[in-house]
Amino acid sequence: MSTEARNTEQKIIASARMVFHQKGLKGARMQDIAKEAGINQALLHYYFRTKDKLFHQVFEEDLFRFMSPLATIMSKTGIDLETRISQIVEYYVEGLTESPNLPLFIVQELTSNPDRLVSIMQKIKQDNLSGNRQVMQNFIYQIEEGIREGKYKKIDPVQFIVSLIGMCVYPFIARPLLKEVFQMDEDQLHQLLIQRKEEVTNYAFSILLKP
Amino acid sequence: MSTEARNTEQKIIASARMVFHQKGLKGARMQDIAKEAGINQALLHYYFRTKDKLFHQVFEEDLFRFMSPLATIMSKTGIDLETRISQIVEYYVEGLTESPNLPLFIVQELTSNPDRLVSIMQKIKQDNLSGNRQVMQNFIYQIEEGIREGKYKKIDPVQFIVSLIGMCVYPFIARPLLKEVFQMDEDQLHQLLIQRKEEVTNYAFSILLKP
DNA sequence: GTCTATAAGCTGATAGAC
DNA sequence: GTCTATCAGCTTATAGAC
Q1: How far is Cα A108 from Cα B107, in angstroms, rounded to an integer?
Q2: Is A209 helix (H, G, I), strand (E, B) or coil?
Q3: pTM of the model
Q4: Which residues in chain B have Cβ-Cβ distances shorter than 8 Å to A180?
Q5: Strand D: which of residues 10-49 in chain B lie with Cβ below 7 A?
Q6: How far apart are CA B184 and CA A136, in angstroms?
Q7: Nearest to A203 among B26, B114, B163 (CB)
């Protein structure tokens, strides 16, 4: 494979990602991707024989990017829960600022084809050297331990985790709604997201810690 | 308009809603909608001349259903903040159980075409006899007042509201992800959603109320 | 109002020259 | 590897009979 080929290939993937994120699998046009990459449709098919193959490559990488850090943070050892929570919030709120459409894209495509998830999950699990279930159960166990010690309130660990991720991810998913409801422009929304990191971390501690 | 016509029309809208919720605007096929309604494509076009018109009718109603109760609850007078919060959580967690795909559908289509929002928002505002901004500012003011009185923690009202809605809506949006990550079947997920009402209400109070 | 048959347009994919 | 030209299939939309 020549250098030129790798360049073109990478350019295509980057363009495809942009278009897929904006329009989804069904809404994206091969013509748009080609144009964005500065090539024509025939060359696009030369590199990736079908739209599905191209999509799969983009999506797999995206899902991995979205899920893997979470699994990594959760499976780290020798780290207290407060730090773990801060890192999760930090990853999502900071990391997603660069790819604000990522969460909606993933959830959208996963809903219309849930089968995709299974195979990709395998890789994430392998990367973290343990089954995903174990990763979660480790994190859950740490919460339960804190509750037993009387340090945390008596909450449901799963509900807590869902809430934590929800608080981080929702503003990215519901961006157009927020802009309209709170009458914000792009700049104000950006400000909200920056400040959100600290705010959500505090909320999580409020939920968890006994007064 | 004959009785038959109203029946067929309603049947079409119900079928269209089902298909649009599952596949989105781009993914939905007029053929699927017709089949679901037990008619053929020509009759579909007889009632709604284009796919876009049919979609718009469904979407407008859905967005109204999704947003209006929130605006109504928020603009109610003579009601304390705790009750207001309980009602919001109740509406979303209970109400959305019947249309679990509604939030993702709305956010998805709104992202790919944000212009839709503006015109529909007008109607919602009119229905609640006040500008949406006023509704929100009323709610925000109530929070600020509690903070001044020393009853609530010093939080950002907008961040709080976004978090509250996020905690309610996120599990519906991320359903396939939750099922895989927590290894749940449809029944367990349903249980989680039922219990969620009380849990999220408590979380909101934990965030808000001073110890 | 409801149907069958068909037109018109778009989109992914390929053939073949360079 | 990259291009132009074109095909084949699908999907929306319409014509016209009943």
Answers
A1: 10
A2: strand
A3: 0.95
A4: 114, 117-118, 121
A5: 28-31, 41-42, 45, 49
A6: 13
A7: B163
B128 touches chain A (CB under 8 A): no
Q: For residue range B124-164, list pLDDT tens digits in order.
A: 777 765 555 677 888 999 999 999 999 999 999 999 999 99
- Looking at the DSSP bridge assignments, the partners of residue B209 are B152
Residue A45's nearest nucleotide, by CA–C1', is C13
Q: Which nucleotide has the least CA–C1' distance to B47?
A: C1
pLDDT tens-place string over residues B64-107 = 999 999 989 998 889 999 999 999 999 999 999 999 999 999 99
Contact status, residue B35 vs residue B24, Cβ threshold 8 Å: no
Alpha helices, H only, A76-101: 81-98
Quote the percentage of chain A above a pLDDT of 70.
Answer: 96
Rounded to an integer, the average pLDDT of A1-9 is 79
Q: Say whether residue A38 is in contact with chain B using an 8 A CB cutoff.
A: no
Residue range A48-79, pLDDT digits in tens: 999 999 999 999 999 999 999 998 999 888 99
> At residue A49, what are phi and psi to the nearest 5 degrees?
-55, -35
Which DSSP state fits A49?
A: S
In B76-174, where does DSSP find H-type helix?
A: 81-98, 102-112, 115-127, 132-148, 157-173
